[in-house]
Amino acid sequence: MVNPNFCNLDAFLAGVERRALRIAEIATRDRDEALDVVQDAMLQLARSYGQRPAEEWPPLFYRILENKIRDWQRRRAVTQRLFFWRPRAEDEDAEKDGFEGIADPGQPDAQDVLQREQALRKLESALARLPRRQREAFELRIWQGLSVEETAQAMGCSTGSVKTHLFRALATLKDDLQGVWP
What we know:
mainly alpha, 7 helices
């Protein structure tokens, strides 16, 4: 017999997968690394906390994800110090699939797409410049829609700290993105 809790866990993980990947991509700036980080976080949640009640999963998962991102950043810092002469992955040319020059008639206007992509890159860059705790509060409250209490539990701090970090993050982003976002 299949444990019904695991079916719910599968649904939960499927629901947070894309957003978690986006958070990890912003932090790592590498899709492959981000996929690994998210997969590790999901596995740890399933192994260690799969039997917990479903309402505990969101803050637990985002706490695990942030810890996995921090672990990745630490490992990368050590690797960069040891192998400083190697080129970084984002500096190398990405492999081409041969379809990048073909227009898709079902796509929106190229100018609109370019403006949205530039705005998104500016947002990602502004988020990457935020202090870690402010970025974490922004991602959990705004992008993930967690409550203040859930965010506090995920971040391991008080609700007042969450509000302070979010207020500072929003103020900084507002200044950084003036003229980019409405």
